[in-house]
Design a protein that fits this description.
With 136 residues, the chain is of the alpha+beta class. The protein has 4 helices and 8 strands, in the order E-E-E-E-E-H-H-E-E-H-E-H.
C-alpha cells in the first residue's frame, strides 16, 4: 500500500475528548507546491454546522481546534493541534484514526491555542509592557 493513499486533510475542533471534523481526501484539497490543505475554514465549518450549542459559544475562535495537511513530497501528514492538547495521546490517536493518517509530524501554530492560554499570553505581554514603560 502506498503511503498517503488514505491520508485525509481538513480542519477539526476538539470537544472535551472528542474530535469533530470534516475530513476530505487530500487530493481534493488545494495544492501549493505539494502541500495539500482543505478548502474548508474553521469559521465556515463552525457556522455551516451550527456548533454553537455543542461548544456553548457563538464564535469558533473560542474553541480548541487544529488542522491536518498533507505533504505529498514527503508523504507525511502534518497535524496542527492546539498547544493545550499537543501531548494528549488520546486526542492525537483520534485525529490519526479519523483522518486515516499513516505517517505524520505534529506542530502547533499561534492560532491553534486554547482561548485561556492565548488570553494569558496576551495579558502577560501587556503586563511586561506596562512594567517596562513604568520603569523608564
Amino acid at each position: 500500500m502506498k503511503i498517503g493513499s488514505f491520508d485525509k486533510i481538513g480542519p477539526y475542533f476538539i470537544s472535551n475528548t472528542k474530535i469533530i471534523a470534516r475530513p476530505v481526501e487530500y487530493r481534493n484539497g488545494r495544492n501549493t507546491n505539494g502541500l495539500y490543505d482543505s478548502e474548508l475554514d474553521h469559521w465556515k465549518m463552525f457556522d455551516q454546522h451550527h456548533y454553537e450549542s455543542v461548544f456553548n459559544t457563538d464564535d469558533y475562535i473560542n474553541v480548541p481546534r487544529g488542522r491536518v495537511l498533507f505533504d505529498e513530497n514527503r508523504q507525511t501528514s502534518i497535524i496542527y493541534i492546539d498547544q493545550c492538547f499537543i501531548s494528549n495521546q488520546k486526542i492525537l490517536s483520534q485525529i490519526i484514526e479519523l483522518f486515516q493518517i499513516e505517517q505524520y509530524t505534529v506542530k502547533s501554530g499561534w492560532h491553534y491555542r486554547c482561548p485561556n492560554r492565548f488570553i494569558s499570553l496576551i495579558l502577560n505581554k501587556l503586563r511586561k509592557l506596562i512594567i517596562h514603560s513604568l520603569n523608564q
